[in-house]
Design brief:
single chain; 252 residues; 9 helices; 17% strand
């Protein structure tokens, strides 16, 4: 089946777009080597992981929490953005588009690629803070403590908590409102690498304008496929650079 006409129509909507909002999930980062947590073989299929990376476990069993946190998240230091991250940044940097990214990922790859407007719905791995006194620490200090077989502790005696949203945590309200406003303002929305099953992030699509174009790029079908203007069950790291490159008149 020749998909060129559909790809061409998609590029035309992208070219005409004035404000682009993006919702990304784990699938955009798997091509950079970060595991997909929710796939059939994902990390969340392990019961001990689901029970350990939680707010309750952090406050009641911090040693257990940090054992899994160190195993799952701290090896990501050498991960680099892939073609999908770079293509989104290019829309802003090269083509002058207004692009705002709401991401469920905590890897910081959108900023590393050059995107300037990023709402990290589930937090990030750059810093940690003490829940008792509010002192902020660089994640390097958390790593150092764990490498020395110590539970990361604040000078006040409290246990330092990574600035990520754990199971049982609430989303940061300011970040959440910002993401909602972006979806309401956009005339084109990308959903990339997300199954659109994780709440409340998946409800952001409900905020879209009726006249906005919805483009879904995900390896597996989503519940929103029938409502989207364009659906691609492909690797975002390969497809997005092709779509953005077409803005220069390159051929598929």
């Amino acid at each position: 089946m020749d998909r060129s006409p559909m790809l061409a129509r998609c590029v035309e909507r992208l070219r005409a777009a004035r404000k682009i909002a993006v919702l990304t999930g784990a699938g955009i980062s798997t091509e950079s080597g970060i595991p997909d947590f929710r796939s059939p073989n994902g990390l969340w299929q392990r019961r001990e992981v689901r029970e350990s990376i939680t707010r309750s476990c952090f406050f009641h069993q911090p040693e257990r929490f940090y054992r899994y946190f160190q195993e799952l998240f701290l090896p990501w230091t050498d991960i680099e953005p892939n073609g999908a991250h770079r293509a989104l940044a290019q829309l802003e940097q090269k083509y002058g588009k207004w692009v705002a990214v709401a991401t469920q990922n905590i890897d910081g790859l959108h900023q590393a690629a050059g995107s300037s407007q990023v709402a990290e719905l589930h937090g990030h791995l750059r810093t940690a803070a003490c829940p008792d006194c509010g002192a902020v620490y660089d994640m390097a200090e958390v790593r150092q403590a764990l490498d020395q077989k110590r539970t990361p502790a604040c000078e006040c005696g409290g246990v330092i908590k990574p600035d990520v949203v754990l199971f049982g945590d609430s989303l940061d309200p300011d970040t959440w409102v910002k993401a909602q406003v972006w979806m309401q303002q956009a005339d084109l929305i990308f959903c990339i690498g997300t199954s659109l099953t994780v709440t409340p992030a998946n409800t952001l699509i409900d905020r879209r304008r009726r006249d906005s174009a919805l483009i879904i790029i995900n390896l597996e079908p989503t519940a929103w496929d029938d409502d989207a203007d364009f659906v691609f069950h492909e690797k975002a790291g390969e497809l997005l650079p092709r779509l953005v490159g077409q803005l220069d008149g390159q051929f598929f």
